[in-house]
Amino acid sequence: MLSRLSPRLLSSSPRLLSSSIRTLVNVTYPSPSVAVLELDRPPVNSLSLEMATSITSHIKQIESDPQIRSLILTSSNPKIFSAGLDITEMSRPSKTRLSTFWRSIQSLFLTLYSTRLSTISCITGHSPAGGCLLSMSCDYRVMSRNPKLGIGLNETRLGIAAPFWLKDLFVKTVGYREAELGLSRGKLYSPEEALKIGLVDEIVDGEVYDVAVERAEEYAEIPEKGIVATKRMCRGELVRDLEGKIEEDVGWFTDFILEEGTQKGIEGYLKSLSKK
Ligand SMILES: CCCC/C=C/CC(=O)SCCNC(=O)CCNC(=O)[C@H](O)C(C)(C)COP(=O)(O)OP(=O)(O)OC[C@H]1O[C@@H](n2cnc3c(N)ncnc32)[C@H](O)[C@@H]1OP(=O)(O)O
Fold first, then answer.
1. Mind telling me which GO cellular component terms the entry cites (predicted)?
2. Would you give the DSSP letter of residue 3?
């Protein structure tokens, strides 16, 4: 049923879908060339297999409408953009589910990072780890100035490491030394700090969403041929690197996660979250 609905119908009839499938995202159209994909998986928009698959398939549907030029990625939760990967997917999983889960994350990254659409991340709330991955995969990042918010790659705090392609994406975004520091220390940057190192492009005092729509419309004015070719030039290398190592990366991830020491670390981290 999903594949037969046009993106426009999706946005106008969210109830039509929610009765049969939980989409975990909402799609709306603030202007004829701009789509908004709002993450909607309470409580924290963590990326489960189903969530990652849903985001990917919605991006592909939006992309298939030639009128749409820009995509805003945002959250239905004003305090949390996304808490990153759903940690429960990595806690005592079956190897089959874990591999499928990781493939869904690889596919989400490749789809978002290489889409022809100009992508704007509208970060109103916390954006750790996989949340930061989503934001960094976009072309432009706008964040709320709230100093209590954090964005960055805190994987080491869970006793895990970012995969090579996420490390490479971080290096491309903030430069080698800052990436090495941020990754090893599992640092979450305040919006001001993130702006300083280029992890976000703009911080906003008022309505972040309004600024994101403005930026999306500006991108939509740029001739498509030029912007898409430029995006391919800037992003092609990393896309090809991962595409050439999909199986190797799945093997690395599953081995790392299923190791007993990693499992103990993940269990401890989950306990510390639920004790808060
Ligand atoms: C080799 C492997 C490479 C893999 C790469 C991994 C990248 C990742 O994305 S790993 C995930 C990293 N994410 C985090 O460390 C974020 C953890 N969460 C938080 O820091 C906070 O929850 C928050 C700042 C996002 C929000 O804080 P808030 O006080 O509003 O909410 P909480 O009470 O903490 O959480 C509510 C509820 O949600 C559960 N939860 C939070 N984050 C996750 C998550 N990432 N996955 C699954 N579940 C999560 C939390 O335990 C609470 O559950 P209960 O209500 O049942 O206690």
1. mitochondrial matrix
2. G
DSSP assignment string, 11-30? HH-HHHHHTT---SEEEEEE
Provide the residue range defining the domain that includes 55.
2-275
CATH number of the CATH domain containing 192: 3.90.226.10
- Residues forming beta bridges with residue 35, ordered by sequence position: 71
Q: Using alpha carbons, list the distances in angstroms from residue 163 to 30, 34, 51, 212.
A: 35, 32, 20, 29
- What is the DSSP annotation of 130-188? HHHHHHHTSSEEEEE--TT--EE--GGGGT----HHHHHHHHHHH-HHHHHHHHHHTPE
Q: What are phi and psi of 31, to 5 degrees?
A: -155, 165
Distance in Å, CA 153 to ligand 1 centroid: 13
> pLDDT tens digits, residue range 99-141?
999 999 999 999 999 999 999 999 999 999 999 999 999 999 9
Closest CA to 182 of 150, 219, 204: 150
Which pLDDT does position 107 carry in this prediction? 98
CA pseudo-torsion sign 153, 158, 163, 167? positive
Question: Whose alpha carbon is nearest atom 10 of ligand 1?
Answer: 85
Cβ contacts of residue 198 below 8 Å, gap of 6+? 173, 174, 175
Q: Which residue among 24, 39, 41, 44 is best mutated to probe the pocket of ligand 1, counting the most ligand atoms within 8 A of its Cβ?
A: 44
Retrieve residue 25's tokens.
Answer: 């995202």
What integer is the mean pLDDT of 210-218? 98
Cβ neighbors of 41 (< 8 A, separation 6 or more) are: 24, 48, 51
Record the tokens describing residue 273, joined without a space: 């979250």
Residue whose CA is at the smallest distance from ligand 1 atom 28 = 44
Mutate-to-test residue for ligand 1 from 273, 274, 275, highest number of ligand atoms within 8 A of CB: 273
Higher pLDDT, 247 or 5: 247
